[in-house]
Design a protein that fits this description.
Bound molecules: nicotinamide-adenine-dinucleotide
Radius of gyration: 23 Å
Helix content: 40-55%
Largest sheet: 7 strands, mixed
Distance between the termini: 61 Å
Shape: globular
Strand order of the largest sheet: 12-13-14-11-10-16-17
Number of helices: 15
Strand content: 15-25%
Number of strands: 22
Length: 454
Amino acid sequence: MNIINPATEEIIKTVQEDSPAALHEKYTVLRQAQKAWGLKKLSERLVVVQRFYELLGEQIEGLAAVLTAEVGKPLAQSRNEINGARARILWMMGHAERYLSEELITDTEELQEKISYEPLGVICNISAWNYPYLVGVNVFVPALMAGNAVMYKPSEYASLTGLEIEQLWKKAGLPSGVFELALGAKETGEALLELDFDGYFFTGSYRTGKHIYEKVAHKMVPCQLELGGKDPLYVADDVLDVAGVAAGTADGAFYNNGQSCCAVERIYVHESVYEAYEAAFLKEVQSWKIGLPTEEGVYIGALTRKEQLDVLEDQVQDALSKGATLLYGGKRSAGKGYYFEPTVLVNVTNEMKVMREESFGPIIGIMKVKDDEEALIFMKDTAYGLTAAVYSHDVDRAQRILSDIDAGSGYWNCCDRVSAGLPWSGRKHSGFGATLSHQGFRAFVKPKAWHLRK
Ligand code: NAD
């Protein structure tokens, strides 16, 4: 499998995909190794995680360079991602004891009742490329802490990062066979669905997630899906700093080239602040440097996947044919690399693809609305349910709107944000189950109820 640098279109490496036979062998190794790992004390497992955390910090420059080379994100954003992953691990290390230890529920002279948390066993983690460290860490760190063995399948677009992660675990002292890598694309993923894992944890598109869920249903094991979104954002008429809100929300839409599951994908703006917002938004977008992701100061690098250029072009054409106005950008850039100009569409309607289908790229539709009610109708008009945001001076007003939206996260005066202490979860086509928070530990264990009559 050739690994291509999306910014230069050069082949940077060739790696060997895992055959179904190789995967079966790794699966057998994981089964064996899990037994001893699961029996270790939590404190012993945490020593290994601590070392993994330290290594991420010590090797950040090299790791960021590899990530940027294969996914095309600006180097500064690769460093941010690794630092973000470290912060999450730190939170998990500080909370593992609390959420994985036995809980005493009742303790009388006659009866003791307690809950213990047993590892699921050997789990399979099929992952995405847009934030391989962040979405990877969400799954494999608490899974390992809880005593599971992990088959980690990085996206084919983040294979080199997958190999780095495997090396880091080895260096951190993780016993051999507790963490195995499955390299390859769709066929590798399919082969993993044939093996008898004790849980499937998937991050990726709705389409693949639905397929995986259907395919593993008969196994009767947990299956958790973190999928895409079409996240709406509303700017109310009482915001105090329209220009500041415009700049912040533009970042929420375009950071990582818009390739974030929780990127702002649709913007609704109250008519009384619309003009000021649009002007400030445009000014912000025009200020960004586009270029090689390794260059200092670049904010818009290359897209990771070539095919996404067609998706974005199609969304622009669809919007224009239905009456939208192109305020900025609108096409792929000439020359080498998978570059697409940051694109702003206005006079859009919710019938256009750019307001309905996940764009996963540097493109945004902005719509004028007359009041909160109209904004809410549009915000709710989606098959997805990952996040929703409201910018307003009034927290009650924002919470009223957000409580009425069927999404896993509600943002007031912020967006495109994930917190280690809060559950990260989607609804509807954005998936189900949660990572992070206490739920993100409990996802990887089976509770056992102990009824001890004295
Ligand atoms: P994708 O669905 O194309 O691929 C995800 C993974 O599934 C890859 O490892 C891929 O090789 C594998 N795969 C593909 N076909 C398969 C099959 N038939 N059987 C088994 N495995 C298969 O998604 P992607 O392009 O890697 O990621 C982008 C998507 O992920 C976006 O929709 C984004 O919103 C979503 N995402 C969601 C979250 C979240 O936390 N909710 C986080 C990051 C990304």
